[in-house]
Amino acid sequence: MRGLILYESRYGTTEDIVRRIREELKGVETLPCSKLSMQNIEKAEFLIIGSPIYFERLSKGVERLLKDTSFQEKIKDKPLAIFTVSFGRHKRYLSLLKRFLKRENILIEYQFRGKVWIFDRRKEEEIYEFVEKVRRFYGDR
Ligand SMILES: Cc1cc2nc3c(=O)[nH]c(=O)nc-3n(C[C@H](O)[C@H](O)[C@H](O)COP(=O)(O)O)c2cc1C
To answer: I need a labelling partner for 141 at 20 to 30 A (CA). Which of 46, 76, 132, 134 fits?
Structure first.
């Protein structure tokens, strides 16, 4: 495994996005935050962390994980990509994730649009745009 995508999804949109990213990027595995073990993190060369936004906040499971000091310690030298999934695209949503992370480790940040756009062309364009950013940093072997 080269990369690991950590995420949570209550209504399925983030899950769909994560599945499409995994299809596009070789060597990337995915794991809901609730199923994470610290060994998974050790094996990953880089992490992608994604959260949906509900009522202006991160998904609870993602927030819990990011606040965990042993998690913070484990990822302190890992390159990171972060993304949010929400109706609105507001920079403050990404800031919610960044609060808990070392800024210098964040190489990529992205905001996906939420549910209403999930199956249309615009959504696919977002997936390709994000995947291209990841490939630029980590390659695609
Ligand atoms: C209860 C609820 C609250 C939401 N609150 C926000 C919000 O504050 N801002 C926003 O931009 N989108 C908001 N959304 C839209 C979600 O972020 C969007 O539907 C997202 O795709 C949900 O991800 P999921 O399908 O993986 O659970 C909300 C959606 C729900 C159902």
So the answer is: 76
Contact 46, 80 (CB under 8 A): yes
pTM for the full predicted model:
0.93
- Tokens, residue 58: 């991160």
C-alpha to C-alpha distance for 119 and 140, rounded to whole angstroms = 25
**Nearest atom in ligand 1 to 114's CA:** 21
Q: Are 44 and 2 in contact (CB under 8 A)?
A: yes
Mind listing the domains of the chain with CATH numbers? 3-138 (3.40.50.360)
Helices marked H in 25-120 — which ranges?
38-43, 60-67, 69-74, 91-98
Encoded tokens for 118 = 């999930």
Interval 74-126: pLDDT, tens: 999 999 999 999 998 899 999 999 999 999 999 999 999 887 655 566 788 89
